[in-house]
Amino acid sequence: MEPRAQVCTPYTVAKPFTWHAQGIHNVEGEKNYKVYMSPEYFDAHLTPLGWEQVDNLRKHVRTSGLLKKIDLVISSPLLRTLQTAVGVFGGDGYSDNKMDALPLMVANAGNSGRSAISSLNSPPIMAVELCREHLGVHPCDKRRSISDYQFLFPAVDFSAIESDEDVLWKADVRETKEELVARGLNFFNWLWTRKEKEIAIVTHSGFLFHTLSSLGNDCNPSVKKEICQHFANCELRSMVIVDKSMLGSDPPTTNYPGKIPSGLDLPSSAADKKAENENSHSGLK
Length: 285
Hints:
This protein has helices spanning 24-31, 48-63, 66-69, 79-89, 146-152, 177-191, 205-215, 221-227, 271-281; strands at 6-8, 13-19, 72-75, 103-105, 117-118, 125-127, 199-203, 236-242. The chain has 285 residues and is of the alpha/beta class. The chain has a 6-stranded mixed sheet. A two-stranded antiparallel ribbon has the order 4-5.
């Protein structure tokens, strides 16, 4: 496994980062980037392969002992990230009786075909808007109402989200990379106010790439290259953000490379770049 990336900022926090499992938009978007503009993929859910990836990572976080160390799980409030978060870090099968707590996910949430997932023996899971994917234009990156999510994921904490409806996503305005990075840095600033030390974050490829690239600007080029590599679906990377005087932490034992065989499904954040390239080849601007 690769050595743990150490981001050179004057803070000390340990964070396992995970890109959500494969979504239906990833598969179709790789064939045709225009799919990301289709309302059919609004708040895209996981594919059957995506759920296999979830099951594989779920097994890993248990056999590695990582699950016992996690104090909190933070998820972007979109269907694919919530499904990934509760699937990986949730409890065992849910029993619908008075002795059980509320389920983290009800049966067949988001056309998953999956049984309900218990919140027993699971770290708390919280949804946070700041770690969403690129905002705007692509319907797959628009969330549904929090009321809908609360029905599908009863034991997930949505209290940090102020608006029931999605007021951040705009149909005709795409968030710039600079705006995404600023939002990502705000997310990290918020993380550093948390009392929890081991926080698992389930988020999106574009958000991870641009935010971590910005955080890596002060690092050695070899370190920046490592942390800026695109994640594979359901890949888990354990990163420590440390004070420069504290470099030299022990290597991780919990990294997980994502699906096997390795390979990237095109994230929606890559669609704009692909469109630019294709338009340039065809003489369009």
